[in-house]
Specification:
about 270 residues; alpha/beta; Rossmann fold; eight-stranded mixed β-sheet; 8 strands; globular
């Protein structure tokens, strides 16, 4: 009997009504092209968070790994140092340009970059199956069931998905600026339920997570956050007021610490069959 709730259709509805729906309307990757360099700076400041994620992934020196939405290589580069090869897929040219710069800095040569949306990737044409498939905070596709099915088909051994549990990690910024509760369309529970409807009974691990961002001044924090949230000039005053209250002086910088619940959804290929 079909479920009472069609979780994939619910995901689509929430995705289309979310503040981030503009990423669906713009040319592939253009939203992150404009933010790639600053995003890369931010990610490089949080290497410990990446190390904790990688420690949860079963890797082998002979494995091939597929990173869906690899961004600037926060996970792809350290993973590449432990495995045979990594394929990094991302729709943003700016993100992949930063990834390639980071590869050169780290002396990593076994990563192949593919500049495409995951929705446009063809298994057997663009990529072959990999031992392990991962996606970290990168699943924002409209048809999530189709995206997950392709990830499952692309994995020979295991799939790992990292996302949020509960509220997105923004420190209440959205509510303060817009005066409304931010829709939590990225909550892990939607992915779990969609997988369940696909007869994939995934494992889930949830833990407390903290993200730290440092700025040289309040002005720098306002500029970077305004750009990331794509805020209008009228909202800048609310942003400045909120940041002035939550930024903490630490070691000559202004530090923004945001806490959240992180979730890892994972399953072994064929374990559900």
């Amino acid at each position: 009997m079909a479920g009472i709730i069609n979780w994939n259709e619910l995901w689509k509805m929430l995705r289309l009504s979310s503040p981030w729906r503009r990423t669906l309307d713009e040319p592939a990757g253009s939203f992150w092209d404009r933010r790639a360099k600053r995003f890369n700076e931010s990610m490089m400041q949080n290497r410990e968070r990446a190390e904790k994620q990688i420690a949860k992934i079963a890797l082998n020196p002979e494995y091939t790994v597929l990173d869906v939405g690899a961004g600037t290589g926060r996970l792809a580069i350290p993973i590449a140092k432990q495995v045979k090869s990594v394929t990094a897929i991302d729709p943003s040219r700016g993100m992949l340009a930063c990834l390639q710069e980071n590869m050169e800095k780290e002396g990593v040569e076994n990563i192949t970059c593919i500049n495409k949306r995951w929705e446009d990737i063809e298994l057997g044409a663009d990529i072959e199956p990999h031992d392990v498939v991962i996606a970290s905070h990168s699943l924002a596709m409209l048809d999530m069931q189709e995206a997950l099915a392709k990830m499952n088909a692309s994995a020979k051994k295991c799939v790992y998905i990292f996302t949020f549990a509960g509220r997105w990690m923004d420190g209440g910024l959205w509510e303060k600026i817009h005066g409304e509760t931010r829709p939590s369309w990225s909550d892990y529970i939607y992915l779990c339920n969609i997988l369940h409807d696909m007869s994939i009974y995934a494992n889930v691990e949830i833990w407390d997570s903290e993200y730290e961002q440092r700025y040289k001044s309040l002005d720098e924090a306002v500029t970077k956050m305004k750009e990331m949230y794509d805020l209008t000039s009228e909202k800048e005053r609310f942003l400045r007021e909120h940041l002035s209250k939550i930024l903490v002086e630490d070691d000559g910088t202004l530090c923004l610490k945001r806490k959240s619940k992180s979730a890892m959804i994972w399953w072994k290929k064929n374990a559900h069959e």
